[in-house]
């Protein structure tokens, strides 16, 4: 399948909005081209597009710096690396194109002037597009993409987010993403600020980290610009920008493919210096960083299933818990690695809320006595369909002071059907959650439970245990009126019966 450049006009985007830009159709075309060309796993398709897209962006950045700095600029693509500049790929075909792209992808981690993040992106990378016409069509398709900013709107991040939705649609190898609207809800409840260190220890494609970054930009954009749809963070000071670029964002994942996708997702959202590391924080320590590292904000949807081998678990993490369950170990990690007054928004399976094991009970007590558990938002079981029907909830808590009460919200609809298709619907409780959040309002869906009652129930956080059953007021008629009506009906029945008997008698 050849790339169809007619999606756009003269290679230019048709609008400043992602959906009007033509990029959505371009992404769909690229995925179709790769599938037809033998790259059938969506994870592999996204990985291959990521490599090529990075090469184009790095070349464009290098060319921009060369224009700005002139002779002072030291090009990334100098010497033997010159042949890997993006413009060279566009003119090649057949085996020459395949060999050049393969050499670039497989050797780029050795590039001297490439950032550590870029080197990690190309670590053990390989070209998987073996069909030469398919490779040329993909290269041409990426070349035709107009991903320059238009009127302040940077479409690169939106484009990549849409590309990642293909991963969600496939669920290949168990890889699927937390729905974007659920991520944004949790980020809004946690409310990360500029100058805060943000971490997702099971970051996947970095959805939580990107959402947190966008949230901070919105908070620091002029209202007039927000009204025009522009989010630029123009109110941030220079020191705040520097901190946001270099120190604010940290993510870990034990899946090397997810790490690479997270790196490019952050890169496309202007976070090329974010810290992304490949390891499991439950077992591997912190590599070159201090093991007791603390964060102001933790956002996560960690793996729910699976057991870790006892000898692999960090000793301090499992101290007195004696559990191998990843969901419990991650909850302990969240509590341990929040800084004083730090806030967390994390998704857990419902079993964490009411599990009867010693480890689960201890963790709930720790969560309620060492932290202020401010909210539990229960999600309908279909939120993660079609891949998982497990019931889940979001925990919103702050480190450093004990809980006085917990606000429960039973979210019954999230704007999508709860079947496998997850099609958009009108029913949506998310706006109501946000409207009631600040005052912790009580309603048919929400209620507050004092800590004393939770302690009396063995630290159980099962939502059904505390939800009040409200009696519906019904206005009944007075007893005398009811009796009068009954006697009237009874008299009518007797009269009709007598009339019927007379009629039968005459017929005889």
Secondary-structure topology with pairs:
Elements: H1 23-36, H2 42-69, H3 86-90, H4 94-107, H5 116-121, H6 132-144, H7 155-170, H8 180-190, E1 198-200, H9 207-219, H10 223-227, H11 238-246, E2 249-253, H12 256-268, E3 275-278, E4 295-300, H13 326-336, E5 338-349, H14 351-354, H15 358-370, E6 371-379, E7 392-399, E8 405-410, E9 414-416, E10 424-428, H16 430-437, E11 446-450, H17 451-456, H18 463-466, H19 479-507
Parallel strand pairs: 1-2, 1-4, 2-3, 4-5, 6-8
Antiparallel strand pairs: 5-7, 6-7, 8-11, 9-10
Helix pairs in contact: 1-2, 1-6, 2-6, 2-12, 4-6, 8-9, 13-15
In N-to-C order, the SSE pattern is: HHHHHHHHEHHHEHEEHEHHEEEEEHEHHH
Work out the strand percent.
5-15%
Helix content: 40-55%
Count of alpha/pi helices? 19
Distance between the termini: 91 Å
Radius of gyration: 29 Å
Calculate the mean pLDDT score and round it. 84
How can the largest sheet be summarized? 9 strands, mixed
Tell me the structural class.
alpha/beta
Q: Note the overall shape.
A: globular
Low-confidence runs of at least 5 consecutive residues:
1-15, 169-175, 469-474
By DSSP, the count of extended strands is 11
